[in-house]
Specification:
mainly alpha; 2 domains; 14 helices; about 90% helix; rod-shaped; Chemotax_Me-accpt_rcpt; transmembrane; Methyl-accepting chemotaxis protein; CHASE3
Length: about 625
């Protein structure tokens, strides 16, 4: 079986052949002749006491008991080994499940990272316990071997009667005590096993006191009896010692060779670990560089349009309607920029129409005012010349006709002012609708900026690449730990490698967390952008309120124009009455004077209304001039 195990090493296979030949030579040249000679001696009288004592099989009782105890001890350790292997497998499954869960979540935050590390820590602890069990089982076999050495040394002395044959017994006894003491410390966490070791120690002590010591004393008393001469001579030649010395040397060479191979393999494992470490570091650095580059490109593609939108909204808040956004992208920012440009264009056109209409209202108001002033002057002259009416009927009729004409003209102007004011009201209504469109566009802009937060998820996908590298690294550490557990004592080098790889994975996780913090900073900036857009929306709402006020002012202008028209109608009616009554002017000068005074007052009222209309138009013009078109 051992030849099969080391079949890849011809030198070791050859050495095993030499060991096998040595044992065969020992059996042929030492063991069989001694057994044959002992048969020929038979039951000599000088050996009767030894035979009787051996026949009592006292040693067999103790050794049977010892073997059952060592067997029970080993069985318990094997049971513990099976349990710990099951725990090891369970921890491994839990670790894999934790890995899968974290991978499905997509992010490795700190609590998840700690959970992963705890899983691997438990796995490492379970592996250590498996190694501990292997060590205990090996020590138990060493205890059994020490006891066998004691029994072998005793039998050799009983046959040869020479003190040097007791050396294996003495060494075995000393080694037995050392091994039991060390094994007690090793299984100190298991009181049941410690108690069993105490029983083993008691069993061997009783065997030494009740069997070994009496047999050794009896053999010393027999000495070199004549019937034992041949046996003593044959055994005294120490032929078996020669073979066993050679056998021990060959075994030592075999073990030394395996130790050298172990050192070489450990060195190779360390080299492989360093190579893996270098590869992982380079891959991690490359992934980080790639992630930073892509993050910079994505952030630039997002922040530049956002800056343009912010500048446009700031200009809009200041009343500048000449600024447009130059964003050609096909995403939400591009759509938002297009909506903004359309809203600004519509508002620009509406403001221009309002300005034009306002200018027309001002001009009409001035014309009405001038006409009313002129009419007032004429009525004043008419009042001054009432005393001359009796001699100037024809001139009075002409004046009355002129007043009627002026009244008709004033009526037309007033009606035109009313139409213009109504148009201005419609323009203001269109302006309100345009401002509502701007408000909706700003709201859409705020929603679009909110979508920027979702862009952080795309950067998160890049971080997932780095996390996957960290996960692969953890899997490497896991595989290394499992291999180390399988190798037992020889796998401690692999455990060191696993620790180094796990440390690498921790550094990778730290780098990933730093990138995650950068993404949080970006999301904070996006939140600030949303707040600024809210301020812009409030300013647009204020502009909408001002436009509504302008609409109210235009309504007042319409009412004033209607009043002017009504007054001018009254003037026209009065002038008609004057024309009809011109034939009776001479008969009723006082009536004409009263009518003239009434017409003068109405003209003054019309002039005042025209001035009011002019002031309202100026106010509307100043309001509209706040916008730069």
């Amino acid at each position: 079986e051992l030849k099969t195990t080391v079949s890849d090493n011809p030198t070791q296979v050859k050495r095993l052949g030499e060991i096998e030949q040595t044992i065969n030579d020992w059996l042929a040249n030492v063991t069989e002749p001694v057994i044959q000679l002992r048969r020929e001696i038979g039951h000599a009288k000088t050996m009767d006491d030894v035979s009787d004592l051996i026949a009592e099989a006292r040693g067999k009782v103790f050794f049977d008991k010892f073997r059952s105890q060592i067997t029970l001890f080993t069985e318990r350790e094997e049971k513990l080994l099976a349990e710990r292997q099951a725990v090891n497998r369970s921890k491994f499954d839990d670790s894999v499940l934790t890995l899968v869960t974290l991978n499905e979540q997509g992010y490795l935050d700190k609590p998840d990272s700690e959970a992963l590390m705890n899983s691997f820590s438990e796995l490492s602890s379970a592996t250590d316990w498996v190694n501990h069990t292997y060590k205990v089982m090996a020590s138990a076999q060493d205890v059994l071997a020490a006891a066998v050495d004691m029994e072998t040394g005793m039998r050799g002395y009983l046959l040869a009667g020479r003190e040097e044959f007791l050396e294996p017994y003495r060494q075995g006894s000393s080694r037995f005590k050392q091994l039991v003491a060390a094994l007690k410390q090793t299984v100190g966490d298991n009181p049941q096993q410690v108690a069993l070791l105490e029983e083993m120690n008691t069993t061997i002590s009783s065997w030494q006191a009740d069997v070994v010591d009496p047999m050794l004393t009896l053999r010393r008393e027999i000495g070199d009896s004549k019937t034992m001469n041949d046996m003593a001579k044959l055994v005294g030649e120490a032929r078996g010692k020669v073979y066993f010395d050679r056998f021990r040397g060959q075994i030592s060479e075999f073990v030394a060779m395996e130790d050298e191979l172990m050192v070489e393999r450990q060195a190779a494992a360390v080299g492989a670990a360093k190579t893996a470490e270098t590869t992982i570091m380079l891959g991690t650095l490359l992934a980080i560089a790639l992630g930073v580059g892509i993050s910079w490109v994505v952030l630039r593609a997002i922040t530049e349009p956002v800056k343009q939108v912010a500048i446009g909204l700031e200009s809009l808040a200041k009343g500048d309607l000449t600024n447009t956004l130059d964003i050609d992208s096909k995403d939400e920012l591009g759509a938002m920029a297009a909506s903004y440009n359309q809203a600004v264009e519509k508002t620009n056109r509406a403001i221009l129409e309002v300005l034009q209409t306002t200018d027309e209202v001002v001009d009409g108001s001035m014309a009405i005012s001038q006409a009313n002033t002129h009419m007032s002057q004429e009525l004043g002259l008419q009042s001054e010349k009432i005393a001359q009416i009796s001699s100037s009927i024809e001139q009075m009729s002409h004046s009355i006709q002129e007043v009627a004409a002026k009244s008709s003209e004033a009526t037309a102007n007033a009606q035109e002012a009313g139409v213009t004011a109504n148009s201005g009201g419609k323009v203001v209504q269109n302006t309100i609708e345009g401002m509502n469109s701007i408000n909706e566009a700003v709201t859409a802009s705020s929603n679009s900026v909110s979508e920027l937060g979702k862009r952080g998820a795309e950067i998160g996908e890049i971080i997932n690449v780095i996390k996957e590298i960290a996960e692969q690294t953890n899997l490497l550490a896991l595989n290394a730990a499992i291999e180390a557990a399988r190798a037992g004592e020889a796998g401690r080098g692999f455990a060191v490698v696993a620790d180094e790889v796990r440390a690498l994975a921790d550094r990778t996780t730290t780098a990933t967390e730093e990138i995650g913090q950068s993404i949080v900073a970006i999301q904070n900036e996006t939140t600030q952008a949303v707040e600024r857009m809210k301020v812009g929306a409030e300013q647009v709402s204020e502009g909408l309120a001002l436009v509504k006020k302008a609409g109210v002012s235009l309504d007042e202008i319409v009412d004033g124009a209607q009043n002017v028209a009504n007054m001018i109608d009254s003037i026209a009616a009065a002038a008609e009455e004057q024309s009809v009554a011109s034939g009776e002017v001479s008969k009723n000068v006082e009536s004409v004077s009263e009518v003239s005074m009434l017409a003068n007052e109405q003209a003054n009222l019309a002039a005042n209304s025209a001035k009011t209309l002019e002031h309202k138009a100026d106010a509307l013009k100043r309001l509209v001039n706040q916008f730069k078109v």
